[in-house]
Amino acid sequence: MMYSSRRKPVLYFREERRFLSGKCTVYKLFGLCMVLLLVSLLWLQLSCSGDMSDRRPPLQQAPPPPPCPPNSQASAVDDPSWGPHKLALIVPFRERFEELLVFVPFMHTFLNKKKIRHKILVINQVDHYRFNRASLINVGQLESGNDTDYLAMHDVDLLPLNEALDYGFPEEGPFHVASPELHPLYHYKTYVGGILLLTKKHYSMCNGMSNRFWGWGREDDEFYRRLRKAELQLFRPSGITTGYKTFLHIHDPAWRKRDQKRVAAQKQFKVDPEGGLTNLRYQVESRQELTISGAPCTVINTKLECDQNQTPWCLLG
């Protein structure tokens, strides 16, 4: 019988069974020996190949990469020449992005040159009430974290040009950097606005700033009286010879007009007996970590709350 080549493996085993049942002729014995020899050789080859594979040396694992060399540049955190204190630079803010783009990298570079540890907190008012600088500074103090121990109440449109100005820890008392003798616009003796440094302890002694001042101005005049009531000694720069050119004022009143509408109740020059950190009401909508021209800052988007029975002028105009 003839078989197709596609079935050869099966025919091979059938022919082998018939082989064993037939007469043992010389040719059959010779053929049987050849088959056994081929099977033996095949088995020996498979066994040897298996032994060789078992005897192969194990693959060597690649050595681990060498550790990165330590950074030879000491960071500000490890450098004792930067001192132990850290400044929270608090910027009350609303819709002044052109000024912010200049302010953040400028102040970051300025403070680094003076080896002042710092973080810049932009307290961005996102509600629909009138701007409230004092309340935003209160928010900044509460949200500044435990890693800072003093703060700067800093206008976004005022840049220090004289590197001799001191931004260090005001241990002895509040330090008014933008003093009336140096500020380009405001020169009256009781002025404490623009840039004021004080420890968190001293700020809490004043109960922060009054929350009653919606709109622009007068909140710093009221804070001056808080400093006096708390019996805190106010300090100002000495030995600065650059006069009114000590700061660059980058606000353009023609482009961005200030909200100067006031009612009679806002024209007070007495200390607000109840307002401050203790009655501040606000919500943090979000926090955003930004880098502006390589300078880091934290934007805290804040919604202030207004008791219209107490301060109905928060919606004036």
Mean pLDDT score, rounded?
82
The largest sheet has its strands arranged as 5-6-3-1-2-9-8
How many helices? 6
Helix content: 25-40%
Number of β-strand runs: 9
The largest β sheet comes out as:
7 strands, mixed
Principal-axes shape call: elongated
List the helices and strands in order. Answer: HHEHEHEEEEHHEEE
Name the beta content range.
15-25%
What is the rounded distance between the termini?
111 Å
Q: Which residues sit in consecutive blocks of at least 5 with pLDDT less than 50?
A: 1-24, 52-60, 65-74
Could you characterize what this model shows?
There is one protein chain. The chain has 317 residues and is α/β, with parallel strands linked by helices. 28% of the residues lie in helices and 17% in strands. The strands form two sheets. The chain has a seven-stranded mixed sheet. The protein has a two-stranded antiparallel sheet with strand order 4-7. The N terminus is likely disordered.
Question: What attributes characterize this protein structure?
Answer:
7-stranded mixed beta sheet, alpha/beta, two-stranded antiparallel sheet, 317 residues, 6 helices
